[in-house]
Amino acid sequence: MFGTHYRIERKSVILAVAIMIVASIGGLIEIAPLFTIDDTVETDPDMRVYTPLELAGRNIYIREGCYACHSQMIRTLQDEVERYGPYSLAVESKYDHPMLWGSKRTGPDLARIGGKYSDQWHTAHLTNPRDVVPQSIMPRYGWLGRAQLHTAHLGDDLRAMRAVGVPYTDAMIANAAADAVAQASPDDDTAGLVERYGEETQVRTFDGDRRTVSEMDALVAYLQILGKLSKAAEQPAKAVAAAATAPAAAEGGQARP
């Protein structure tokens, strides 16, 4: 067997053909099943887009390199599901450009961090991580609370997202700056914001300071929406839970001898 291997390696043409054959077989094994199913990516007609404030927070998240230490993809491993929640679905990253799945976890996965902690917790954690997680090695971002959020370019940001397929409307783009301020200013008129982005839009002072809309507001708003733009993951989670409880229910329903 080894002799045959050596002979193939000495003949570059034969080696190239052998590589192509093996690669083709592997490709067919992976690709062929995709033609036997209707959809390779889940759909969620009720999934909403990021609000201008949340998108601004996402841009800050990217700017500060948060994706280098935090992933946003829960794998289908039992320990990850038990720790972080339902495994991630492709549709949940539908409007993420670029995607932020990540490849390293110095810190925990953030795919479903939304609503897990309070705004006050996030603000304290970003200001000085050691105040809430003593063993944290994350740097401080307290200056975000002192940096006013610049909203003039948000319309262009939404327009750029629309160019790559995110369904932002002309009204959303035209009102981007005003909507960002309104979402972090609950005393303002937010009817237009809610009409454009839905009743579940979170409107409040995210960093606790009503005097201005800061970059901290934007980043906390983004963190609080992670895992909440779509409810598609709830269906697989319910199916798994039902499958797990079915055997116990069946045993409980059996008549005793």
Automatic annotation (TrEMBL):
The chain crosses the membrane at residues 12-35. GO terms for molecular function: electron transfer activity; heme binding; metal ion binding. InterPro entries: Cyt_c-like_dom (IPR009056), Cyt_c-like_dom_sf (IPR036909), Cyt_c_oxidase_monohaem-su/FixO (IPR003468). Keywords: Heme, Iron, Membrane, Metal-binding, Transmembrane, Transmembrane helix. Residues 52-227 form the Cytochrome c domain. The keyword Zinc does not apply. This is Cytochrome c oxidase cbb3-type subunit 2. It comes from Sphingobium jiangsuense.
